[in-house]
Amino acid sequence: MRRERNAKIIATLGPASDTLEMIEKLFLAGVDVFRINMSHSSHDDMRKLHGLIREVEKKHEYPIGVLADLQGPKLRIGTFADGEVTLVTGQEFSFDMDETPGDLTRVCLPHPEIFLAVEVGHDLLINDGRLRVTVTACSSDKITTKVIYGGAISARKGVNLPDTLVPMPALTPKDRADLEAACQDDVDWIALSFVQRPADVAETRKLVRGRAAIIAKIEKPTALTYLDDIIPFCEALMIARGDLGVELPIETVPGWQKRITRKARKAGKPVVVATQMLESMIDEPVPTRAEVSDVAAAFFEGADAVMLSAESAMGKWPEKAVETMHKIAISVEGDPLYRGILAAQRPTPKQTTADAITSAARSVAETLHVAAIVCYTGSGSTGLRASRERPEVPIIALTPSIKTWRRLALGWGLHCVLTEDAKDQDDMEARAVRIAVEEKFAKRGDLIIITAGVPLNTPGKTNLLRITEIKE
User: For residue 267, what pLDDT is reported?
Assistant: First the structure.
């Protein structure tokens, strides 16, 4: 089988989609990567879901990526004696480390690292930004604030600190346990939540030890400050617009989405746009026009993938949500403006042989109107270089590695085929021709472009471009 589109779809599994029957339906509707949210999944849940995904993959002989999304550190307030209080704009309200239930004047904030990092003038956002307070005084055990936006506040609500670099690790003990379990279960991607600095990703890389690829979730303002330094440490980026929209002025998020997407494309790293893509489809079978425009904007910008969260995990219409994503992608990729937008954003190739070859392959493919670009890739880097070019013709990525086969399911335009390494250059050409025909990308009389490395089977040595005619 093959997809009719280049952009990829990620769907989160949950109570509405955790059966073999529904996973297969979602796959056939268009899902390329399934997300397991470790905030709501035990290790046994993860193993069960992973096993079901692999059953579907085996049945259809088509690669499916599996993404384990770590919960990350959760900052929350304590409890209230009356269950809930209502703060009034302009009043004084304090946070301390006293575990006594709070009242209208104070509440416990059981995170000493916040008291050490926060400064006068910094804002604290409570309950996804519904309440905002500004720090007027702070010490090692008390933070005094003025309420900017008031309202009801209840126990265990989350706290965001958009102005503060909190000195805490990106990985909690739970995350470390979840990460190890996910790697042992052989998942393809690990999503790291609440990244603030390059060191957060570097620490995760040491623990992963190459067993999975890492997606850095960009959802903190501090991550934007260090974005150029974070990108080299990860294999992909996710624009997690939920928390990003809480901690940034909401009107700036679309601009950041575009900038992050372009930086990821320039680096040749897949980029995922996530959060509230088709939020109304949790309850309704049809999305709003604004949601359709939002998803289309991500595709027009050249994002590798878009992600469904609650829509597929707990919504009433998970299959329809995926079908809607698929239809939007098909429509965008057939739009007369689409190719011009992608071409205008195409990054300049680096001064390397591999970049020169993949850039030339795209140019030659468009000049000669070839049927496909066939690239041999062991680690996946050559496939992602070809994907970065966003060519007008299909990309067939041939790899002997089942890990690469599955990981590349996230990459824009990549149709991955698991095959043995070529024995020599004649076999390389014959194998590429045979697979292009078998996978229904080419027919007799068509031209294909082949990229590979010589000597063969040498990682990171893409230095060959060959134009071949299909003669049989």
Answer: 94
Angle between helices 381-388 and 353-368 (to 10 degrees): 50
Instruction: State the virtual CA torsion across 284, 289, 291, 295 in degrees, nearest 10.
Output: 120
> Residue ranges per domain, the chain?
8-73+171-336, 84-160, 353-469
SS3 of residue 123 by DSSP:
strand
Q: Would you state the pLDDT for residue 460?
A: 67
Instruction: Give the span between the Cα atoms of 295 and 330, in whole angstroms.
Output: 12
Give the class (CATH, top level) of 353-469. Answer: alpha beta
Q: Which residue has the tokens 């468009």?
A: 366
Q: In the beta sheet, which residues pair with residue 237?
A: 216, 271
- State phi, psi for 419 to the nearest 5 degrees: -150, 160
Question: What pLDDT does residue 41 have?
Answer: 95
Superfamily grouping for domain 84-160: PK beta-barrel domain-like (2.40.33.10)
Question: Helix 173-184 crosses helix 198-208 at what angle (to 10 degrees)?
Answer: 40
Residue 461, pLDDT score:
76
Reading the block at residue 103, the tokens are 């009242």
Which tokens hold the place of 172?
Answer: 């909690």
Burial classification of residue 430, based on how many CB atoms lie within 10 Å of its CB (0-12 exposed, 13-18 middle, 19 or more buried): middle
Residues near 138 by beta carbon (within 8 Å), at least 6 away in sequence: 115, 118, 119, 120, 144
Spatial separation of the C-alpha atoms in residues 59 and 67, rounded to whole Å: 20
The pair of structure tokens assigned to 71 is: 């919960």
* Helix or strand holding residue 213 (H, E): strand 213-218
Mean pLDDT by groups of 10 residues along the chain of 472 residues: 95 98 98 96 98 98 98 93 95 97 96 94 93 96 97 93 86 96 98 94 97 96 95 98 90 96 95 96 97 98 97 98 98 97 91 94 96 96 96 97 98 97 93 96 97 80 92 82
**Site of tokens 């000493």:** 112
> Could you tell me the CA-to-CA distances from 426 to 1, 296, 433 in Å, in that order?
27, 43, 11
Asked if the peptide bond before residue 455 counts as cis, ω within 30 degrees of 0, the response is yes
Output the CATH code of domain 8-73+171-336.
3.20.20.60
